[in-house]
Every structure is written in structure tokens, then in C-alpha cells.
Amino acid sequence: MKMKSLFLLLMFSNCFQSDYLVYNDINNNYSLKYEKIWIKKVIDNNPFFFIKNDKSKFRTNVNILVQNLSNNPLNLKEYHEITLNQIENSIGSTNILSKKNTRVGEIEAKELIYKIPKSIQNPHNLKIKQIYFIKENKAVLITYTSISNNFDIYLQSADTFHKKIKVNW
Description:
Oligomer: single chain
Largest sheet: 7 strands, antiparallel
Low-confidence stretches: 5-16
Number of domains: 1
Structural class: alpha+beta
Number of strands: 10
């Protein structure tokens, strides 16, 4: 009987183990959960998440950037227009695949999907999904970047980053 109880206890405890890891950014005061298929590397105080065991020449990644706007306050519409102009000036408007309104939790956000064609400076055809929002004069950008052919493979997992972020300001 004790052995059966122990087996049931172990079985139920395994059911409640999370498939997520937690990243806490104490400098920017946010946290997020991400799936275990990603590995974290912090570069210049910004977290990058790469697919584990990715052997491709370009590593699929998600990065999070928090931009302080207190010296130049912008609302989401203004920030979105500036972002669109920068992308259009850099790669052309025909490479923007979609733009739409979305939400990150209760916060109004924007979503852009665009491609960066192969060029002398860029040896890969890339596809990028950016979700960004503004809260209390800080812009938060969550960017998923992949080779175009691999974009859909990890898209669902990459989407958990904006679904599981919690800002604490």
C-alpha cells in the first residue's frame, strides 16, 4: 500500500512540473516564462534566447529590448510610425508582410511581421516578428528572428514570450 501511494504521489508531482523556465530581468523590472527548448544568453544587458542544439548558420532567436523613452516620450501610435518608417527606409515597404494591433496581457501593443531579403550584408533570407508596447515611458520590444524557411517551425513557441511576460512597473 505504501509503495502504491508513493507511486501515485510521484506520478502526480510529475504532472505539475512546468515546461517553462523563468527569466527575471532585475535591471528592467520584468519577468517572463519561456519554454525549455530555448537557452538564454545575455548580451550587453539584453536577453537573447536561442533554440537548443540549433546547428544552422543563423540561429533562430528571440530577444527582448526595453527602451527608456522618458527623454522623448512617445505614445504607441507615434512609436509605431517611427518603427515602420525605419523598417521601410531600411528594407522597403514591400517586405512588410503584416501589421496589426494586438495585446500583451491587458496592454495595447503592435505586431509587425517582415522579411529581410538576402544581400551582401545579410547572407540569409530572414523573417521577423516584432511585438512591442509602451508602459510608463518604456517601450518593450520582443523580437523573434528566423531564417524564412524555418519561421513557422518555432513561431508558436516564440509567441509564448509575449504571452508570458510580466512587467513590474
